[in-house]
UniProtKB/TrEMBL annotation:
One GO biological process term: protein import into nucleus
Domain (Exportin-1/Importin-beta-like) ranges: 103-261
Taxon lineage: Eukaryota, Viridiplantae, Streptophyta, Embryophyta, Tracheophyta
Alphabetical list of InterPro entries matching this protein: ARM-like (IPR011989), ARM-type_fold (IPR016024), Exportin-1/Importin-b-like (IPR013598), Importin_beta-like_NTR (IPR051345)
SUPFAM superfamilies named among the record's database cross-references: ARM repeat
Entry GO CC: cytoplasm
Protein name per Swiss-Prot or TrEMBL: Exportin-1/Importin-beta-like domain-containing protein
Length: 270
């Protein structure tokens, strides 16, 4: 708890102290802290516990913790033992559920960390399939569905990332081949999105926000090729296409609906 307090204090100084020398010192300490083994436990505890600091914005500390885990997973995830990876997976799923209602930037960071963790679990069987099984536990509550939506949105983007950020070899990327791993879950994802698009909500603002999340997720999967196995003559009648066309009539979702349709046209010109 003492180390967690020091992290919160350093984050507060870095973001709010008026003296540049103090901000520089805080930044140096935080950079060094991220390199330690203790950073795993402290960052995980910040995201999963109800510990609060009265003198610092909780979001700033929690966002920093999520970034720590994402970076450490990217750089050191391949060295984690299977038990440690399972424990971290469960902790990140808990954090995703906890922050499913926001702030959205924090939920995105947590989901990116989850995706990065999956990329480093290739030696333990079918990690993406394992993740989908884990996501089912979040679908029991509406808040959990929001977390699942964000997770499914970032997952194709991370898997398809061609940069060297995650330090994944070409052999490992082939293990995540579209047919065998990601796109083998297309029917499950599309059915989940269809169910979400049919749900009713308490307010128009809530409905608009959910529609944008669904469209963002659908866009990620369209870019990954989720409709590649569907015959062209059946594509136009897909229920999610009706949802996209209906979204064109709503100003808050018009831009994302256009992106989805543009991507579909570029991939399925027929």
């Amino acid at each position: 708890m003492e180390l967690q307090t020091k992290v919160a204090q350093a984050v507060h100084v870095l973001n709010h102290d008026s003296r540049s020398c103090n901000r520089v010192a805080a930044n140096q300490w935080l950079v060094q802290f991220q390199q330690t083994d203790a950073a795993w436990e402290v960052a995980t505890s910040i995201l999963t516990s109800n510990y609060h600091q009265q003198f610092v914005c909780d979001f700033e500390v929690e966002f920093f913790a999520a970034q720590i885990l994402k970076r450490k997973i990217q750089n050191e995830g391949s060295y984690l033992q299977m038990g440690a990876k399972d424990a971290l997976l469960n902790a990140l799923l808990l954090a995703a559920k906890r922050f499913s209602l926001g702030p959205p930037q924090l939920l995105t960071q947590i989901c990116l960390a989850l995706s990065a963790l999956m990329l480093h679990a290739v030696e333990h069987g079918k990690p993406i399939e394992k993740l989908f099984c884990s996501l089912q536990s979040l679908e029991n509550h509406d808040e959990g569905n929001i977390a699942v939506l964000e997770m499914l949105t970032v997952l194709p983007e991370v898997v398809e990332d061609q940069n060297t950020e995650y330090r994944i070899s070409s052999a490992q990327r082939r293990e995540y081949g579209r047919e065998e791993q990601l796109l083998s879950h297309t029917s499950v994802v599309l059915e989940f999105l269809h169910r979400q698009s049919d749900m009713s909500f308490n307010s128009s603002i809530q409905l608009q926000g959910r529609h944008r999340k669904i469209l963002r997720c659908l866009l990620s999967w369209v870019r990954a090729g989720c409709f590649s196995e569907i015959p062209p003559n059946c594509l136009a009648g897909h229920p999610l296409l009706s949802f996209v066309f209906n979204s064109l009539q709503v100003s808050s979702s018009f831009d994302l609906a256009i992106e989805v349709l543009t991507e579909l046209v570029s991939r399925h010109e027929v």
